[in-house]
Amino acid sequence: MGPTRTCIICRTKNDKGDLIRLVSDKDGNVIYDKNQKINTRAIYFCKNKECLKKCENILLKNKFKCKINLDKSKLLEVIKKVDYELGE
């Protein structure tokens, strides 16, 4: 078993490879780190539609808080793309 991380929405601990990893570059752009190799701080989500939908709702209500610098509108765009990929 590899390192564990916590989903920022439901607070469930899972193996790092079983979660969606989103990182921010120095300009605040949000990147979906599919290979989990980008060397920077990240936020993690469960690979299920419930957590992604909850995150979308939190972002739309402007109540999203995290310790890394993320552009919230760009984060919403990336989450919608990830949600679409999970649906396929």
Q: Give the low-confidence spans.
A: none
- Please give the CATH architecture: 2-Layer Sandwich
Radius of gyration: 12 Å
- Any idea how many domains? 1
Kindly state the mean pLDDT as a whole number?
86
Under CATH at level 1, the class stands as Alpha Beta
CATH topology: Hypothetical Cytosolic Protein, Chain: A
Short description:
This protein has 88 residues and is α+β, with helices and mostly antiparallel strands. Helix content is 32%, strand content 23%.
Structure description:
With 88 residues, this protein is an alpha+beta fold. It has one domain: Hypothetical Cytosolic Protein, Chain: A (2-Layer Sandwich), CATH 3.30.1230.10. The protein has 2 helices and 5 strands; from the N terminus they run E-E-E-E-E-H-H. The chain has a 3-stranded antiparallel β-sheet, with helices on one face. A two-stranded antiparallel sheet has the order 1-2. Strand 3 and strand 4 form a beta hairpin. Helix 1 runs antiparallel to helix 2. The longest helix has 16 residues. It is globular. It starts with a strand and ends with a helix. The mean pLDDT is 86.
Notable traits:
single chain; about 90 residues; alpha+beta; Hypothetical Cytosolic Protein, Chain: A; three-stranded antiparallel beta sheet; two-stranded antiparallel ribbon; 2 helices; about 30% helix; globular
Give a topology summary.
Blueprint: E1 4-6, E2 13-15, E3 19-24, E4 30-32, E5 42-46, H1 49-60, H2 72-87
Helix pairs in contact: 1-2
